[in-house]
Amino acid sequence: MDKFRNNTIVKKIGFNTVVLLCVLVLLFILFAILTPIMKPGTTFLSYSRVVSIFNYAYFLGFLSLGVTFVIATGGIDFSIGPVMYCAALISGQLLTKDGLPIGACLLISILVGIIFGCINGILVAYGGLPSFITSMASMMIAKGVGSVFTKTQSVSWPGGWYQNLVKWTVGGVQIPTGIIILFAGAAICAVVLNQTKIGRYILCIGSNREAVRLSGVDTKKWEMLAYIICGAMAGIAAIFYVTVYTTVLPGGGDTFNNDAIAGCVMGGTSMAGGIASISGTLIGVVIISLLQVGILAMGYQSQYQYVITGLIVLVVVYADLRSRRRSN
């Protein structure tokens, strides 16, 4: 194992990233073998299955990328799923009922996410409230605001040019263009987190907040910025959600919190803060999307995906704690 870990290619890519990629490939092979056995006449190796995996990964990916910044500070945000729904409901209502242009509604969706991110950031960084309690309150507020704004009615986005963000249909074949945008967004997040002052301070706050504060850094400002980034990503996730599923129901989004956070933790982001991996988060999201589609393909209900994801998260968190104890 040490020889493999110290391999030049493995060290360059990252040991955890290589392990995650291996898990992803093994899961894909496993579903390809088991699907025809568990559900005769069904195949997992089809283009439509791959498109389904990507469809789920688009919005979940942006949610996970955003919450990675918050978890890196040692905090948590349980409001991202409902904020995504709230943004989609408000902007969709303005589009379908008030006749606003689609472009303006897409910007409003991102703005709604930023507003919630600012609120969470102010309360946690400057108000001193626990991120767990703050985000739980924001989750309920987001649900309520979305329901009140739409009068508890569902919103169905009409077709339009914005759907080209995730798929182009050429000759009757859907090309998942959204994966290009998701990868580009992940690349930008990776640069911000690993190559800029913003990311360095965010990671340092998660490692040792007091030491960073004593060195003269305004920790409150950078911690708040992490929540703003998370909120903006939730607004972007709302755009990708409606391009795939079109209809949004008030009061939803809770389950996506768990999937997004699980993607981060699975990808190597430490719940204690200070350690984060954008590439790992992206692979973790694809693994969760693969589980979602694969379990349904075998004829089981999606609840089985929650069980498997929960077990994986427990193992990863336990391994992270053991690693930290050894290093200490």
Structural notes for this entry:
The structure is a single chain. The chain has 328 residues and is mainly alpha-helical. The chain is built from 13 helices and four strands. The chain has helices spanning 2-5, 8-13, 15-38, 47-72, 80-96, 102-126, 131-149, 178-195, 197-214, 219-245, 254-266, 278-297, 303-327, and strands spanning 155-156, 168-170, 173-175, 247-248. The strands form two sheets. It has a two-stranded antiparallel ribbon. It has a two-stranded antiparallel sheet with strand order 2-3. Helix 3 (15-38) packs parallel to helix 12, helix 6 runs antiparallel to helix 10 and helix 12 (278-297) runs antiparallel to helix 13. It is globular.
Percent helix: over 70%
| CA-based gyration radius | 20 Å
The total of helices stands at 13
- Quaternary structure: single chain
What's the β-strand tally? 4
- Percent of residues in β-strands: under 5%
Low-confidence stretches: none
Tell me the overall shape: globular
End-to-end Cα distance: 22 Å
Structural class estimated from helices and strands = mainly alpha
Strand order, largest beta sheet: 1-4
List the helices and strands in order.
HHHHHHHEEEHHHEHHH
Mean pLDDT: 88
Major β-sheet, in short? 2 strands, antiparallel
